[in-house]
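in:
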């Protein structure tokens, strides 16, 4: 039950990106999330991060590849220079494939641990690749908040944008779990989401967002209408937000922050966004 509403703030959504194997990009995802088109049965291969050098691109794990893909596409959608944005990278579990590899190697053959895979295991690996790849010297934040990672990442990006008076990039992503960790930290497939949020409107503004934190329980959270597109992924909680953006009607949405706290978003649209800027 929702109890108390806190003071509200305003931000503007300038750009966005969404990627999952059955909805590989916002131009594909938007009409499907609106209900105008059926989702394809075939799945797309993971995106290749074009900003990285060929050797780095080959070595990049799924977590880095999906994070850099949606980060780049969100900046393209907003028409902003990636090197000028502060950023927030949010992931529920980090790279569970590499964590499984490291655990298995430490048990069996610890002297054969790969330095490359080891440095990709840290939570800020994707953020580090991003800032190096696009030459960004602005600050970044890497966070994990279990099932509320999307909400906490979104709140962090909103707060940073308001505090700095500048646009902020949010990148939220999770990949497939494997090995024994999959029983404890389940996640299926790959999902990546990117948003560019600004304290001021601009030519690329998609929606005005009035936001506030509030006391409440996660029982009030909306269920995604297209849950099967990201079913089982640890970042699936981002989908109701993107469904609301695709439909582009004024709406109020709640996103989880903790078992007793929610982020309320009042969305009012200035245009419908069906793809990247040309």
């Amino acid at each position: 039950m929702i109890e108390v509403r806190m003071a509200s703030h305003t931000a503007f959504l300038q750009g966005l990106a969404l990627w999952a194997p059955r909805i590989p990009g916002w131009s594909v995802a938007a009409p499907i999330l609106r209900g105008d088109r059926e989702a394809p049965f075939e799945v797309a291969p993971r995106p290749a991060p074009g900003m990285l050098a060929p050797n780095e691109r080959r070595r990049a794990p799924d977590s880095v590849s999906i994070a850099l893909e949606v980060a780049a596409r969100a900046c393209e959608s907003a028409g902003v220079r990636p090197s000028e944005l502060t950023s927030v990278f949010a992931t529920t579990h980090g790279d569970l494939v590499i964590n499984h590899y490291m655990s298995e190697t430490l048990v069996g053959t610890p002297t054969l641990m790969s330095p490359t895979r080891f440095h990709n295991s840290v939570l800020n690996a994707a953020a580090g690749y991003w800032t190096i790849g696009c030459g960004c010297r602005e600050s970044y934040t890497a966070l994990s908040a279990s099932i509320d990672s999307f909400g906490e990442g979104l709140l962090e990006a909103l707060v940073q944008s308001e505090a700095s008076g500048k646009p902020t990039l949010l990148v939220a992503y999770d990949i497939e779990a494997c090995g024994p960790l999959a029983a404890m930290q389940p996640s299926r497939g790959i999902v990546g989401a990117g948003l560019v949020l600004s304290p001021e409107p601009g030519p690329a503004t998609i929606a005005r967002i009035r936001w506030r934190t509030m006391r409440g329980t996660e029982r009030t959270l909306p269920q995604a209408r297209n849950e099967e597109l990201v079913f089982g992924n640890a970042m699936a909680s981002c989908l109701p937000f993107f469904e609301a953006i695709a439909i582009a009607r004024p709406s109020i949405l709640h996103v989880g922050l903790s078992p007793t706290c929610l982020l309320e978003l009042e969305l009012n649209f200035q245009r419908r966004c069906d793809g990247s800027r040309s």
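note: The beta strands are 9-20, 23-24, 86-90, 140-143, 168-174, 191-198, 207-215, 251-258, 261-269.
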